[in-house]
Amino acid sequence: MKRAVIKGVGAYVPEKVLTNKDLEEMMDTSDEWITTRTGIHERRIIGEEEDTSFLGYQASLQALKDAHLKAEDIDMLIVATETPDHMFPPVAVRFQHLLKCRQIGAFDIHSTCVGFLTALQTAEQYVKMGKVKHVLVVGADALSKIVDYSDRSTAILFADGAGAFIVSAEESDESRGIIDSTIHSDGQHYYDLYVESGGSKESPQIVMNGNKIFKLAVSAKCQNDNRAKQLAPS
User: Rounded distance, CA 10 to CA 67, Å?
Assistant: First the structure.
C-alpha cells in the first residue's frame, strides 16, 4: 500500500534576534509578562533586504539534503505562507526558479496558523493517489513585516522563519507514514485575527484579539490531544 512518509526535514531562521528586553524598550511590556504568558524569550527577525522566498529556499535546501534528493526529483511544490514576496505570482513559483526544479505544479496555500498542516495534508493526498512521488512542502513567513510593534498582544508572538518537508510515496504498512490528520476552523472568530489592509499602497498590519485567540488555541490543543489519545494504539 502506498503511504505518504516524511523523507526529509529542513528549517531556517534569520540571524537577527529580537529579545523580550528589546521589546521592553519599544512598548509597554516586560520580559516577565511575556515569558509567563507565552514561554517566549526571543524571536528571529528577517533582514531589510531579505524576503519570504529567501527563508523558504534555505529550508528547502536542507530538506532536500536530508532526503538525499535533488531538486529535479521533486514532482510538486506547495508553500504555506501569509507573507508572499508579492500578491502574485505564488511564492512557490519563486522557490521553483531558485531551486531549478522542472516544470512542475507549484502553488501557495493561505490558511494562517494551519497553513503548513493544510499543505501537508494536500501533499499527502496527491501522494496517496499516485499522482506524484516526491512533494516539497514549505512553510515560510516574514511576519515581522506586518506586525504592529506598538501592540503587545501581537508583537510578542510573531516572527520570521521557515520549515520544509519532503513528503514521498513509499510502500509500507500502517505503522509508518502520516497516520492521521484533521483540520477545523470556526468562521465566527473571523475578526479576532486578521490583516486589515494589503493594497499596493498600504502597509498591512496584524490585528488580533490576543486574549480570545489564546483561549481558542488552548481549547483546540486540548481537543487535539484527546483525539491523539483515541488514535494511539492500545
Answer: 9
Cell of residue 82, nine digits? 501569509
Residue 104 three-state SS: coil
Residues 157 and 112: their CA atoms lie apart, in Å, by 14
What cell numbers appear for 141 in the block? 513567513
pLDDT in tens, 149-205: 988 888 999 999 999 999 999 876 666 788 877 887 888 877 777 787 664 345 667
Sheet arrangement for strand 76-80: 2-12, 160-171, 134-142, 76-80, 105-109
Residue 1's pLDDT is what?
Answer: 62
User: Would you call 126 helix, strand, or coil by DSSP?
Assistant: helix
Assigned C-alpha cell, 14: 534569520
Contact 118, 59 (CB under 8 A): no
d(CA 220, CA 214): 10
Rounded CA gap, 164 and 56, in Å?
7
Within 8 A by CB and 6+ apart from 86, the residues are none
For 25, 42, 221, the CA distances from 21, given in Å and listed in that order, are 7, 9, 29
Could you give the C-alpha distances from 200 to 93, 160, 204, in angstroms and in order? 20, 22, 10
As a whole number of angstroms, the distance between CA 85 and CA 91 comes to 6
